[in-house]
Each structure stands twice: as C-alpha cells, then as structure tokens.
Amino acid sequence: MPEAYIVDAVRTPVGKRGGALADVHSADLGAHTIAALVRRTGVDPAAVDDVILGCCDTIGSQAGDVARTAWLVAGLPDHVPGVTIDRQCGSSQQAVHFAAQGVMSGTQDLVVAGGLQNMSAIPISAAMLVGQQYGFSTPFAESPGWQARYGDQEVSQFRSAEMIAEKWDISRVAMEEFALASHQRAHAAIAEGRFKGEIEPVTLADGSVFDTDQCPRDTSMEKMAGLDPLAPNGRITAAVASQICDASAAMLIASEAAVRTHGLTPRARIHHLSVRGDDPVWMLTGPIRATKHALERTGLSIDDIDLFECNEAFASVVLAWMKETGASPDRVNVNGGGIALGHPIGATGARLMTTLLAELERTGGRYGLQTMCEGGGQANVTIIERL
After folding, report:
1. Are the C-beta atoms of residues 217 and 27 closer than 8 Å to each other?
2. Domain Thiolase N-terminal spans what residues (predicted)?
3. Which residue from 119, 128, 220, 384 puts its CA 20 to 30 A from 85's CA?
C-alpha cells in the first residue's frame, strides 16, 4: 500500500476564551496556519489536491465551508478545493485521516489537513441551540428513534465524565492531581521553549504579536478543592475539564511521489489510522476500545509506543483510558493537555498531532499514538512514526 507522509505541521498559539484570538475571524484563523504551512514547506500551492479542515458548529464565521474560505483568504490558488468535516472533537484528526487515505488510495498526492475553532465567537453547541431558537429543530436525543433505542435519558459529556469517574473508581482528588500535573507540564514546556518551533505567531489588530499559549493556569490542589462540582454530589469540576479556547492547526500530507517530485523532506509516516465507536450515552469511553483495536491491527504493544496524546476532555477520560490500556503516565500528554492548554474542538486533533510530532523529534522517539473522545461515543486513533 502506498505510504502517506507528514511533511510539516504548524499551529497558532492557543488563545483562552475571550483572549488574544477571540476577535479573529474564523476564516482568517484557519488561513493563518495554511499560509504558514505553505511558506514553511516551500510547496507549490497550485499542486495541492484538496484542503480538509475540521470544524464544529459551522454557523456564522464558520459557515459556508470554512476550509475552502480559509484557503482563499490565505491568498492561494482558486482551483484548489476545500471541504469542512465534523466528527465532533475529533474533526481535525479525522481530517488528517481523510487526507492520508486520499494519498494512500493513489487518488491524491498533496493534501492540506487540519482544523480551526473560534469558541469565543461561536460557543460550543451553538449550532444545536440556534436551531431550537428558531423552532425548526430539537436536540438529537429528542429524536423518537433515538429514544426508542436509548431511552429518555440525559446525554451529555458532563454526565459521561461523571459516570466514568464512578465506574473506574477515580476520585476527585486523583483527577485534581492529574489536572495540576497537566498545568505544571504545560508551564514547563512553555518555559523550555518546546512549542516555539510548532507555533506560527499571530500579529493582532493592535499590532502586538501573540506567540504563547494563554490557557495554562497557576493553580493548586487547594484552589481546585474549593470549586463546586458540576453536578450535585459529583466529582467533576471545571478544574478537571478542558478549557474553552481558540486556535487553528494545519498539516501537509504527501505521497511518496509528491515527496520526490517537489523535493520535500517528510518528518513522519502515518503508520496506522482507524476510528471506532462505543456507547453514545457513555460518549467519552471510545478511546479505550479504539486504542485496543489499533494495537491489535498493527501488532504493536502499548510498550512499543514512545509517546501518547490522549485528549484531556476531562481528567476521568484519560485516567480510565490509562487504567484500561496500561499506558504509562510518564509517556502520556508529557507537555500538558486540554486541561492546561485548552481544547479548541475543531482544531484539537491537528494541534495534538503537531505537538506529538515535535516531541517525538525532541526526544528521539519512534512511535506516537494519538486518540481522543468524540461526540456520539467515537474515537480516532493515529499512530505516527518519526522519520
């Protein structure tokens, strides 16, 4: 089977809710990393076959096929198409999968993949809420067909995170310790300059340059202990959940023929890609099944993987995943995760992979595995091999 290579990967700094990127139009946010990717790789943009970007809540500034718009806003050739996809939190990881599959099928040679999300401008679940506001839709869980299958019960990420904490006997203290470690790791990574090479600074409207992730907090076990749980008598608080934020990321996926033709130097090979589903009411347990499936398909063991990125939607998700897979905490989210660095939904998959690739290069690791929980009880897994 033909190979798919990652030539380069770049991201914006992550802006906190209402922070540095809040007023940047979503199309301009996506265009920023696309333009940087073309410039960094030196690839002829006219040779790109497609642009695939993940984005959720595609209304307002994110409507109208924002992948296509972002490419055009970047000043790149009209004849290159673009498509926006939504696999919820895994949207841009799925964008990378579709790009790699296009290359591996032999039907494409150069694809830009990534994602964007301005959660400050367009709040999470805004697309569902606007439908209700105008009276022409109801939430998916109110579908008669859905209720016939799953019953009339709450379906939410918050309930799922709580259910996971209970089932896997994960205490509030354990989750707060995990959250604190995420912030500490992120602060250390920023202080050591680990993210500098992967970040393309953004010049803001006032002329200032935004070049450093905004979300990591100076927190403590004492501060977290003082927060109220999200549900009565629950274990989940805002401190152990990912942060709302704004960002974009982009990657260039290339065939072996394109690498030769365009004189490109790939940084990694896509070793494996897959996606699995799990119970949609539990919603956030997908990475467990998906990771086990990926390891079975590849013949790799958990110990063969040098680094992991498991998205920190909630601390309970990653802690349960580590219990079930045996992944060592010392190799998981080593530069912090969504609790500290934020979770810009449509951009997170490509943001994680950009950071994973850079960290494999920094440490000399061979294999990196990335997974994340997604709405509907889904989870993507990508295993990349550093070259």
Report:
1. no
2. 5-256
3. 384
* Strand ranges in the chain using DSSP code E only, listed in sequence order: 4-11, 15-16, 50-54, 82-85, 110-118, 202-203, 209-210, 245-255, 268-277, 307-310, 367-374, 378-386
> What Rg value do the Cα atoms of the chain yield, rounded?
20
Range 303-323 burial, b when 16+ CB lie within 10 A, else e: eebbbbbbbbbbbbbbbbbbe
Q: Residue written as tokens 């509030």?
A: 172
What is the set of active-site residues?
Answer: 89, 343, 373
How much is the average pLDDT of 59-76? 97
Give the pLDDT of residue 258: 98
Is 99 a residue whose pLDDT tops 80?
Answer: yes
Looking up tokens 């198409």 gives 81
**Beta pairing, strands 209-210 & 202-203:** antiparallel
Residue ranges of domains in the chain, CATH in brackets: 4-122+243-262 (3.40.47.10)
User: How is 14-26 classified by DSSP, letter by letter?
Assistant: PEETTSTTTTS-H
Q: How many Å apart are CA 104 and CA 254, to the nearest integer?
A: 9
Long-range contacts of 359-367 (CB under 8 A, 24+ apart): 359/194, 359/307, 359/334, 359/335, 360/268, 360/306, 360/307, 360/384, 360/386, 361/267, 361/386, 362/194, 363/306, 363/307, 365/306, 365/307, 366/306, 367/271, 367/300, 367/304, 367/305, 367/306, 367/307
Angle between helix axes 315-325 and 157-167 (nearest 10 degrees) is 40
Return d(Cα 31, Cα 25) in angstroms, integer.
Answer: 10
